[in-house]
């Protein structure tokens, strides 16, 4: 791993030294260059190749200034233009950055002459130069540099500026959700830029110049980001990525081979705060633009995967292009969430045990990294203050981010090791779980569970050697068919109190008085019998809705909480032991298990009749007080069918529901039905579930609808 990292560093250093060498021997092409270590500067001492090589090494060590390249245009026989020779339109040599007005002027001159070489030259020069691109297409023109625009009259300028739309960077331009001030929102005039691209991309020679310029620009940008902290010095460095990504032709074949892979590598080197700014900016761009960006990165990933052959020796995880494009796709993924309907409130409180200071046996054995506790948090997610589970409806459906070609070639056992052990040096696709299908992710979860089972088995063997006892490597359950709930409950309750880590062992079920080795089939039957018993309506733990064929917690159940903990443990064990269960819960149960509270929208699935009634209250145009006569006191039936009254607010029976407070009424009603009325039952259920899954990457890898697929397959 270390050698891989140092090999990449050596390759980057070599490229940087080569840039210094070229600068010392050939120069940057700028006749007004003032860098004394550049051959284009009049003060530079000429050096032979050996001396230049030694000097390049010295400049690399002290991180000396590197010039930008000033290319020129060379006409080809096919009518296209390349970067390379003397400029053909001297009158535009004083253009040091671009605005919409500048491009329009050059374009009209070229159209008059019937020759686009001047435009091609300027586009090639500006788009291959980081500094020039940063200053281009600003909302407010930079005052320091004189430009062609000085020919405009003041009136023209004012009218131009007023017509250019100001583009806001995010939902909260002043600061990020975690309270970090947003130093400055992007300064690019997006609307003007889009109009420019519309004009430019219809000209073939310009398209060719844009491709070549991007090929030249991106390696330099990548080096600058990696070694010179350019973004920290100048946050406007982000403009380069904003401008390039507005090119609607990026997905076309001429970009896929070299230009786009290099661009993705450069973009993936942006610091976290810059990626978060990009994500927030793109979230405001509207669906067509976000979808185009998503498809651009997806196409590059698919194209690269299909163009290569992968195996155990040549993993897709080591393909720089696929990895970089996946990291870029993550920025678009979060933009799609931010731009959609999001609820960052209504979170369940976590009752996670405080960390113990005592060393675990895993830590003593040096295995703590493989079995480290708790769910991971994605750094970009943390920076943006939003999680996929907070998203009610993204701009782009989550399924569209899954890349089938990656899922076909990924070696999940290797990827799992990178995810758990080598996260610092190796890329794991599980750090970008949105790109993986449920089947692929469930493979990763399977490895996690099996390794944990194997680990518990080893620890049991170690303990038994020390204590001189017979090892018990499995979670053994011996049950009687006619007392299955009592036997399972007593045994699992004892285990959960005395040694909860035993729940992480492989399940081994034995029915009393029956021969049979449990190779999965007996466990499957055990789960089925337990569920039939627990969901039996005569027991009264759950209620059943005949309309949607789903179960819900009985708020007036007489059963103790241990029964609910048992069903939670059973669900956890099913995931842990790779069993599909015949359970029928509404989606809100899985959302609550993953940390969200139930809200009004969840009623559509769990209590459809009530949802419809509440919707009518919200949409009613007449007088609610006179026509419906509702108050903040509600009535529901208990286990024996008796009506029970509940005040949603203090003295609720005296507060009528009006147009002004109906939103609050609906919110409190849904909160009572889905959260408050079943709080003790659900808490016990979740506690049992977490006993088995608390150390699993389940919460990090899967969304609630995917957890449902894991537990009970497709409805």
From TrEMBL:
Example GO molecular function: ligase activity
Entries under SUPFAM superfamilies matching the protein: Hect, E3 ligase catalytic domain
Bias type Basic and acidic residues, positions: 152-163
Region (Disordered) residue spans: 144-185
Swiss-Prot/TrEMBL catalytic activity: S-ubiquitinyl-[E2 ubiquitin-conjugating enzyme]-L-cysteine + [acceptor protein]-L-lysine = [E2 ubiquitin-conjugating enzyme]-L-cysteine + N(6)-ubiquitinyl-[acceptor protein]-L-lysine
All copies of domain HECT, residue ranges: 499-715
Record field: compositional bias (Polar residues): 166-185
Origin superkingdom: Eukaryota
InterPro entries associated with the record: AZUL (IPR032353), AZUL_sf (IPR042556), E3A/B/C-like (IPR044611), HECT_dom (IPR000569), Hect_E3_ubiquitin_ligase (IPR035983)
Protein name in the entry: HECT-type E3 ubiquitin transferase
Native source species: Characodon lateralis
